[in-house]
Structure of CsbD family protein:
Amino acid sequence: MNKDQIQGWIREIAGKLRTALGKTIGNRTVTWRGRVEQLIGKTQASYGDAKARLRKRS
């Protein structure tokens, strides 16, 4: 695993927690921020996956 995969995974988990918190307290802003953070985390992890695949080919 590379840095981007790990950071993306952590960010995705944090986003899931924030989304759950927002739903629990009934705050749409917190919920949406959590969803955005999840998306950013997934994107970063995917970027890390692509980097890892390219390194294996080289």
